Records
---
Amino acid sequence: MQLNELAKNPKLVIGVKQTTKVLMSHQAVVVFVAKDAEQHVVRRVIQLATDQEVDIVFVESMKELGKACNIDVGAATAVIEK
């Protein structure tokens, strides 16, 4: 999935807490993580995605991920649900 198509996806979920919930329910297709996000914030998301063999796409910055999600603030993580 291309980053510029992210905001158009109706199954897009944004934010660490919401991403974690999707991963916990085993409903994730692909996870996006900002490289400049605090590691202690995204560590669990990365671990859950790795354990479930969900693809992880690393984005250069929180600002870029937020923009791709069509929000006015940065985003540490986002996920596409099944």
---
Amino acid sequence: MSANRVDGNLWIRRYHPAPDAAVRLVCLPHAGGSASYFFPVSKELSPDFDVLAVQYPGRQDRRDERCMDSIAELADAVTAVLLPVTDRPVVLFGHSMGATLAFEVARRLERRGIVPLALLASGRRAPSRHRDEGVHRRSDDEIVAEIKALSGTKAEVLGDEELLRMVLPAIRSDYKAAETYRYVEGPPLSTPIQAHFGVDDPRVSRDEAAAWAEHTTGPFELHSYPGGHFYLNDEAPRVIEAIAKVGASVGP
């Protein structure tokens, strides 16, 4: 699996270059996730979308870099690297922690007069809906148990102690970022929002997903799917269809 870095940038990966696409899709991974999680999405939506997958520091080829354990710090960094590629309409798609991060990136873009075409928030409660969770303070074994419960990491990774030692610092850091995030009151977005969630997800209820509607003055859609926190693994075609419909709203 190969990827082009956008202008050599470590943050953004382009697996299927689509220079003539009318819309850019920016994908933001879950806690402990990497840009490669969105390879199938990129493959399906190219060349209609120029798909950019964000690679956080502290994992894969960035594993020697300092992890960022703050949503605000991540949002500032991601916004900075996205500004040069906002020359065409942008759709933000974030899963789990990535959804919260996408929201904060959208806020920062809108402050600069750039309104994303849409924000798709997957597997995450609305920013204003807080839960007291402390996974990032647990032992390594307890974090591994949490990951297994959510079924978000491939079994071969969970069974490989060397790989686990490599990824656990990034997972812990990401969980800290997600769990210490606190919504700061502010004007709602103009960006249309779609909330996507699995009906058996222990991390987000229907009401918590529906509360995303409070964060936009634009259109809102709520989409539910069979499955848990990583419903996306099995329901990707339906989510990709929703993204494609957003892109279809942009003329040639």
---
Amino acid sequence: MSRTRRVFGKDFKAKVVLEVLRETETLEVLAKKYELLPTQISIWKAEAIKNI
């Protein structure tokens, strides 16, 4: 059985990155909350900072 790749929209990514930048919760907590890997959130954060 193969897993299908999930696709995330810009709005979802922006919401997650904004929460990371607020630093109210740790990266691990946010990863569990949104069912993501911490490395994926870190990549989105780096891209957002680069493009600002």
---
Amino acid sequence: MIHRALRPEDAPPTVLTYAWERLRVDPLPGPRGPDGFVGLVPAGRFTWQITPGSDTVPSGLSMLPRLAAEVPARLLLIDPTGGARGMHRQLAEQVTMTGADAVWVVDVGGDVVARGDEPGLRSPFADGLALAACVGLPVPVEVLIAGPGLDGELPEAEVIARVEELGGHLWGRLTGEQATPAADVLVWHPSEATALLTAAAMGVRGRVEIRDNGTPIDLTDHSADIYGVRVNGLTGNTLHVRALAETETLTQAEEVIRRLCGSSEIDYERQKSARLSEDRPERPANELRHDADAYTADARTRGIDYLTFRRLAEALDVSPGKLDRLRAELRQDQATDERFPLWPVQGQR
């Protein structure tokens, strides 16, 4: 979506991505490496391509194979088991093999520009490791922040102020035309931040409740903006990125984050995974709709305009792997556009 907006005349990009799903999709805490998949295709000495024929072990625990079938980008798996140095080898190899003239680190929300000691920061590990892996690449590296504040960590104003402090600038703003194709994917993909960014680009404004703790996020006139910061200006102004650059294992990287930022998001997932692994009885459809209506009515009294589908799954305690069923049950008797990426609260019965 960002590539379509900023370089519309180019061929589709090569995208390196973590295989790091929400726990309600994949109960495995943290990112998967290549040994967590079957059917990957070699894309060099250090990198593997995700294709529609790829799958997890056990089966069906990653959205990436289906994503590979539905988006034009070439998807490659980031393998963090070798720490930042291992990821750097992957990136450098792909720059050479593809003839890339630039690397973009794309983050929705903007916690990627955090110093590392902000009280609202929840996930410094994944972003910091990606930045550390980009240090020393032979092409320009730009950090692109889309939708400041949409990930529920640093507030919008703080992200924009941090971009200005780092000498960054506004690259542009996503339009509805550029974002609407993502709505087809968001019918089945549970990404909250991308859903908020897409909705904002389509002109939606209002308060959205997200995450397992019900964090409220306001969609504003800045929520579809794209900002850019040079990676060299950022790495010297954080607590953890340069330290992560020397790591050679995932364990070393976690130790750096715990020491410098206080916690690793993988630790949080380990604790949460134990709770989600408990068996749940299958709930009747009418009970699920009743509970969803009750939660929607309560959200309306709190001034919420929209809910993400992940937030509904968390609030209703829907078992992992049942997100598609939740969506289908909710849409069955509600007059809502199936491609709309959020669940409206105001005006529902």
